[in-house]
Amino acid sequence: MGLFANSEDFEKVIVGFFNLVAETPEVADKLLASKLVIRFNYHDPEVVVVVDCSQEKIQVRSGDKEAQAIVEMSMSADIAHKFWFGKVNLTMALARRQMIAKGPVPKILKLLPAIRPTYTMYPRYLDTSGHSNYNVH
Amino acid sequence: MLPEFYQFQLSTKVLYGPGLALDFSHELHELGASRYFLISDQVIQACGLVDGIAERLQEEGFTITGKYLDVPQDASVTCVEAIAAQASQTGAQGLLAVGGGSVIDAAKAANFIFTNGGSLIADYSGAATLAKRLKPLVVIPTTAGTGSECTLAAVIYDQENNTKLSFSDKFLLPDLAVLDPQMTVTMPSLLTAATGMDALTHAVEAYVGVDASPHSQALGQLAIAYITRNIAQAVENGGDLTARGAMLIGANLAGISFSHSMVGCVHSMAHAVGAVARVPHGIANAILLPHGMAYNLEECQEAYAGLAPLFGADANGRHAGDAARMAIESVKKLTAELNRICALPIRLRDAGVEKDMLPLIARKAEEDGTAIYNPRPVTAEEIMVPLQNAF
To answer: Rounded to a whole number, what is the distance in Å from the CA of A113 to chain B's nearest CA?
Structure first.
């Protein structure tokens, strides 16, 4: 069994974090420059989130299975959780099939330096948003 | 220091031997397919390399159900879809690719749709999109450069959106790679030099990259030795099967190495130079390799010092910094030698790059997907130095 007991819990954590990232200009500006629309398909537990960087501001839409995504990333909630701690090497995770990426992967790789600040934001966010029980990896 | 984690996988069976392209049919029995669709291009066909292979296989009881001989220089979505459709229509059970990187990449990508149907872009573009093995794929490289015969990736040009699509999956690895140096003797000298320097760049960058591993480094070292000791001879005397064979093996080892450890700033710059000034990839790498190595000198001093003897530098007893600089100088000497033999460009200005293009090239290099694997961060400001030096 994974770290997150149910979809509701994980959805709160991940959507709240994406919203925080969307409001952090240091990261958000670079994501907006990519114009990417990314759908994250999580399993164990199941959650779908679209992060839409094609608009003026980043939009985070939970449960959006209809939007035309440019990139689709599929992974377990636990891998996603570890990733935002900076503990997952994306290319290795792809090679090990811990993540599956559909679409232009190089565009995702280019974003890695831009999202580096989020690795320190995530544990702080967990502590300050009432999710400190998940501040483990 | 050992990496925290790495993995190494090569499911491709590799055969090496002069004349083997006409003598490998017994290997096909293991693959469980007797009907193959043949993929190549007009240049290879005109050299007479395709018909002999097809005829020999048919003499041995295999069926060539059809041929697609129009793979363009940049394998396109259109040609990939045509290959898959024709292979299916003719009742093929497997694919046989004879050609350079473009032909092999086209065959790899076509195998997605040939095996599973669906849309190449919507269903398979990306990484790790497959759940099971594809149909048998046999490849016979006719260049010694990309190493695509043993890499788990393919790059296909999407002409509709004017972009290059990347596909990466362990199931893309061909089942069988036949390395026959006789298949590369018709390669012109400049192409031999450019593709060979492309392979050398793969080996060097995989060796020092942030995802380097003991396995990829072992192969990279050997690749560097094979290529640096044989490239000039292969360029000068294309009929020398020993030199041709060493280049084929070196490029193959380099391909396996970078398929696991990726490449770095030389490729970042080369991709940008290709996009902005249309400089062929191998030539761009040849020009930029010593300058990219110099860019990484501080981070890679020990690594370059270790490689120095493989580049032919007599660095015995030298301080690591001196030995590393000698390695870089050896690469410069090598490209100068190739310039003398076959006019391989050694400056960007000689390959069609204008000085005012450099800032844009630097920005594109910073954004390139390979930059994150470079041991030193690639910024547009700092990468201008090697670009200006290479100009």
So the answer is: 7
